[in-house]
Specification:
The complex is a heterodimer of chains A (154) and B (428).
Chain A: H1 2-36, H2 44-66, H3 81-112, H4 126-129, H5 131-153
Helix pairs in contact in A: 1-2, 2-5, 3-5
Chain B: H1 3-18, H2 23-37, H3 43-51, H4 60-73, H5 76-88, H6 94-107, H7 113-130, H8 135-145, H9 156-165, H10 169-175, H11 177-198, H12 208-233, H13 239-257, H14 266-296, H15 299-310, H16 314-331, H17 334-351, H18 356-370, H19 378-387, H20 391-414, H21 417-427
Helix pairs in contact in B: 1-2, 2-14, 3-14, 4-13, 4-14, 5-6, 5-12, 6-7, 6-8, 6-11, 7-8, 7-19, 8-19, 8-20, 9-17, 9-18, 10-21, 11-20, 12-13, 14-17, 15-17, 16-17, 16-18, 17-18, 18-20, 19-20
The chains are: A mainly alpha (154), B mainly alpha (428).
C-alpha cells in the first residue's frame, strides 16, 4: 500500500508541476506572440482555464496530504488530545460526506455539458468540468489515507 | 432574503470554521446544507467549483505567488538589505529603519506579509538582537512593517479583492501606492522616536559610492515592481500577463544573474510555489457557490438594511465595516476574510457611495492591521517565533507601531482622494 501511496503522490506532484509550467509557457507565449509577432492564440485562454481547474484540485489534494489547508485553530488548540482526535474524526466523516455530494454534483454538471465544446479549443467542455469529480475522488482518497494512518497509529 | 435563510448560510460556515475544519470545506458544507434545505438544484454545486475560477484573470494569483517565491529564492534578500542599509542605516536605530524600508522595497517583489516577515525577519531580527535591540521590539517592528507588503503593489490580497469585486486590479495597485509610502513614513517616525529614547545604535554613514554600488547590486530586483505596475498602467499587459512576465523575469534573474537556484531545482520550486497559492485557490473556487447564493438570496439587501438602520452616513457605515474587518483580521487569514465578506459588504458600500477601489485598499489595510493587533494577530505570532520571545513581549512593544498604522488607516478612510488621485491621474 505504501508503494501505491508514493506512486500517487509522485504522479500528482509531476502533474502539478507540468500544469503550472504549461500555464507559464502558454500565458507568456500569448504576450510574446502579441507583441513580437502580432498574433495571439485564440485557444490559449481556454486551455489555461482547463489547466487551471486541474491545478486547483491537484494542489488541494496534495495540501490535505500535508495538512496545509487554511483553518482556524484558536479553539481546537485548547482541546484535550482525546477530544481533538474525536473532532478530527468528525471532520473527516463530514468532509467525506461533502466530497461524495460534490462528486455526484460534478458528474451531474458533466452530464449537462455533454456534446459541448470550447469555441476556440478542439476539446469538450468536460475537459474542465471533469476536474471536479476526479479532484473530489482523489481528495477523498487522501482523507481515507489519513484516517487509516491515524487509526494504525492509535 | 429573510434573516433565517441568512443565518442558515452563515451559522454553519462560522461554526465549522470555529471547529477547525479547513475553510474551503466549511464553505462547501455550509453551501451544501443551504442548497439541501432550500431545494436548490444540487448540480449547481459541481458547476460552481469550475465557474468560480473560470476566468483567465484568476491566473494572476498563482503567477504573483510564483514571482514572489522565485525572487525570494534567488537570494535578493541580502541585496535589498544592503541597499536599504546604505540609505537609512546611519540614522539612530539604524537596523529598525532598515527593517521598515526593506519591507517596503521587498513588497515590490513579494506581495505577501507572511513572506516578507519571514524573509526579512529571519535575517534582521538576529542582527538586531546582537546590536542590543530587545527581542520584543525586533519582532514588533518586523510584524508591523510586513503589513506594507500587501498594500504596496503588487499585492495578492488586492488581486483577490479585484477579482471578487470586478474592480480594476491596475487601479487597486495604483491606489495602494500612497498608503504604502505613508505606512513606511509613519513607521519610520515611530521607530526613530523609540530608538532615540532607548539610544539604539546607528551604523556609520555610507558614502555615495557605497550607495550607488548597493543600488547597482539590487537594481534588477528593484525593476520588478516597475515592470508590473508600469506594464499594467501603460496598457501593454493585463494584470495576469504582468504576473507571468514577472515570473519569467524572476526565473531569468534567479537562474542567470543572481544564480539563486539551478534549472534542476526549478520544477521543485514551481510545484512548491503553486501549492502555496493552492491554499487560497481552492477557497476562491469555493466562493463561486457562496457568492451565487448570497446574490440569489439578495443577502446584500439584508446587510444594507442592517447598516442603513444604524446610519445612512457613508463614513459611519465605512467605520462599522472597518471595525468588523479588524476583528476578522485578528482571527483569520486576510484572503478568507475577503472571500467571505466582500460579496456581503460590497453592495452596502457601493450603495452608500463609497468607491470600490477606495474600499478595497482600506479593507486590505484593515485586515493587515488586524494581523498585528492583539489578542490574536497572526503576524505577531510569526514575529515572536522568529525572535524567540513571548507573544506578550511583542504585544508590549507593538502599541506605537499600531498607533502609526491606525493613523494611516484613518487618513485613508476619511480622505479617499489620498488614494484615488494616482489611479485617477493615470486614467485621465
Amino acid at each position: 500500500m505504501a508503494k501505491v501511496n508514493r506512486l500517487v503522490d509522485w504522479i500528482l506532484s509531476v502533474f502539478l508541476g507540468a500544469c503550472i509550467t504549461a500555464l507559464v509557457v502558454i500565458a507568456f507565449g500569448q504576450v510574446i506572440g502579441r507583441y513580437m509577432f502580432g498574433a495571439s492564440f485564440s485557444w490559449a485562454e481556454d486551455l489555461c482555464v482547463v489547466l487551471f481547474a486541474w491545478t486547483i484540485w491537484t494542489s488541494a489534494c496534495l495540501l490535505i496530504r500535508d495538512g496545509r489547508h487554511l483553518k482556524l485553530t484558536i479553539l481546537t488548540s485548547k482541546l484535550s488530545q482525546t477530544n481533538a482526535r474525536r473532532l478530527k474524526l468528525i471532520e473527516a466523516v463530514l468532509t467525506l460526506g461533502f466530497l461524495v455530494i460534490v462528486f455526484f454534483a460534478g458528474l451531474g454538471s458533466m452530464e449537462a455539458m455533454v456534446g459541448m465544446e470550447f469555441t476556440a479549443l478542439p476539446l469538450p467542455l468536460n475537459a474542465k468540468f471533469s476536474s471536479v469529480p476526479v479532484g473530489t475522488a482523489l481528495f477523498a482518497y487522501y482523507i481515507l489515507r489519513r484516517l487509516i494512518g491515524d487509526w494504525k497509529e492509535n | 432574503m429573510d434573516i433565517w435563510a441568512f443565518a442558515t448560510l452563515l451559522a454553519p460556515l462560522f461554526g465549522f470554521m470555529a471547529l477547525g475544519f479547513p475553510v474551503f470545506v466549511s464553505m462547501g458544507l455550509a453551501c451544501v446544507l443551504f442548497v439541501t434545505i432550500y431545494d436548490i438544484p444540487i448540480y449547481l454545486i459541481g458547476m460552481s467549483y469550475v465557474r468560480g475560477v473560470d476566468n483567465f484573470t484568476y491566473l494572476a494569483i498563482p503567477f504573483y505567488f510564483l514571482a514572489g517565491d522565485l525572487m525570494n529564492r534567488s537570494g535578493i534578500t541580502d541585496r535589498m538589505l544592503q541597499f536599504t542599509s546604505t540609505l537609512v542605516g546611519h540614522i539612530r536605530g539604524g537596523l529598525s529603519h532598515v527593517n521598515i524600508l526593506a519591507n517596503m522595497v521587498f513588497s515590490g517583489v513579494s506581495g505577501s506579509a507572511m513572506a516578507d516577515a519571514s524573509a526579512i525577519g529571519s535575517v534582521l531580527i538576529p542582527a538586531m538582537k546582537k546590536e542590543g535591540y530587545t527581542p520584543g521590539y525586533s519582532a514588533a517592528i518586523t510584524a508591523a512593517s510586513s503589513t506594507i507588503g500587501p498594500i504596496f503593489p503588487p499585492s495578492i490580497p488586492l488581486v483577490v479583492y479585484g477579482l471578487l469585486s470586478s474592480s480594476s486590479i491596475g487601479d487597486l495597485f495604483l491606489a495602494g501606492m500612497v498608503p504604502g509610502v505613508l505606512m513606511c513614513i509613519f513607521l519610520l517616525i515611530s521607530s526613530y522616536l523609540i530608538s532615540r529614547k532607548r539610544k539604539y545604535p546607528a551604523h556609520p554613514r555610507a558614502s555615495l559610492r557605497q550607495v550607488v554600488q548597493a543600488f547597482g547590486h539590487a537594481f534588477l530586483a528593484l525593476l520588478m515592481p516597475l515592470i508590473i505596475v508600469g506594464g499594467m498602467t501603460t496598457g501593454i499587459v493585463t494584470p495576469t500577463e504582468a504576473g507571468v512576465v514577472a515570473v519569467v523575469y524572476a526565473i531569468i534573474l534567479g537562474l542567470f544573474v543572481y544564480k539563486g537556484f539551478t534549472l534542476r531545482q526549478l520544477p521543485g520550486i514551481l510545484t512548491e510555489s503553486v501549492l502555496n497559492s493552492g491554499v487560497i485557490l481552492i477557497i476562491i473556487a469555493s466562493t463561486g457557490l457562496f457568492a451565487y447564493l448570497v446574490a440569489e438570496m439578495q443577502a446584500g439587501e439584508l446587510i444594507n438594511e442592517f447598516f442603513t438602520n444604524i446610519s445612512t452616513n457613508k463614513w459611519v457605515i465605512l467605520s462599522l465595516i472597518v471595525g468588523f474587518f479588524i476583528i476578522w483580521g485578528c482571527l483569520l487569514d486576510p484572503i478568507t476574510a475577503l472571500v467571505v465578506m466582500v460579496p456581503l459588504t460590497l453592495p452596502v458600500v457601493t450603495s452608500a457611495g463609497i468607491d470600490p477601489v477606495h474600499f478595497g485598499v482600506v479593507t486590505v489595510l484593515t485586515l493587515m492591521i488586524g494581523g498585528v493587533t492583539p489578542p490574536m494577530g497572526i503576524l505577531v505570532f510569526l514575529g515572536a517565533s522568529l525572535a524567540n520571545c513571548s507573544f506578550e513581549e511583542v504585544v508590549k512593544e507593538s502599541w506605537i507601531f499600531l498607533l502609526a498604522l491606525f493613523l494611516v488607516l484613518a487618513l485613508c478612510m476619511f480622505v479617499p482622494d489620498l488614494l484615488l488621485w494616482v489611479p485617477n491621474y493615470y486614467s485621465s
